[in-house]
Design a protein that fits this description.
Helices cover 11% and strands 42% of the residues. By secondary structure, the protein is mostly beta strands.
Length: 258
Amino acid sequence: MKKFYLIAALSFCTAMAHALLLNLSTYGGTDLQKYDGKICNVSVNRYTITGWNTISLPFAVSEEILNEVFGNDCRLERLVGVENDGTGVKLNFQDCKAGGIEPNIPYILYYSGETGTKKIFVKDAQIVAGDSQVSFNAQGTGETVKMACAQKHLDADGLYGVLAKDNSEAKFVNTDAISSGFYATRCYVQLSSGNTKTLTTNHIGDVTNVNQLTSNGNELVDVFSVSGALVAKQIPASQVKNLQKGIYVVNGQTIAVK
C-alpha cells in the first residue's frame, strides 16, 4: 500500500512539473501560435500607471482576479461605438467589468493604486492567438475607427494612445512623437484618415440589450445618438437592431447594437 501511495505521489509531482507555464511578455511580445488553444498557467507582469491604462490579453481574466490585482474600485471598459462630433471623433466606452477580460478584446482599465508592476496570474487559462481589435464607422463621415492591441512592440507613428500625463481622462492623443512606441498588451486607436483629428472619450452607463427593446417590435420609435443627434425617426423598434453597430438612445434607454 505504501508503494502505491508513493507511485501516486510521484505521478502527481511529475504532472505538476510538466504543466505548461506561460510567462507573457508585456514589452517585446510573445509568440502565441505555439500556445494557441492550450491550457496554461499564465503569469503577466504588467506595468500599470495610476489612472486609465489600456490592456488586451490572449486569455480570460475574471472580475474576481481583476479586483485582487487592481483593487475593488478598478474599472474596465470596452469600445462599443464611435461618433462624429463635428470637429473630431467621440469614442464611446461601456463598463464591462462584471464580465471580466475576454481574450483578444482591447480595453481601457482604471487603476487607483500606486504606479508600478502588477502581477496577473491565472491558472488553467486557455490561450487564444489571433487578432486583437474592434472597429466601427463614424456615422455620416465614412471614417473607420479601429482599436487594437500591440501584440509585439509597435511603432507609434500614425496612431493614437493614452499617455501617462493624460490618463486621468483616458484621453487618446496623437503619438507620432513618442519614440518608445507601443509595448505588447497595450492598445492604440487608428483612424482611416490619419491622426490629425481630436478624439474624445465618453464613458457610458448601463446599456439595455437591443432584444429587450424589440420585444414590442411594432412600436414606432425615434433613435438618437448618445450626443442627442437624431439618427432615425419613427422606425419600428424591431428595426433598431439593423442599424450600424454602436450605442443609441431610444425612449430614454441606452441601447447597444452589436
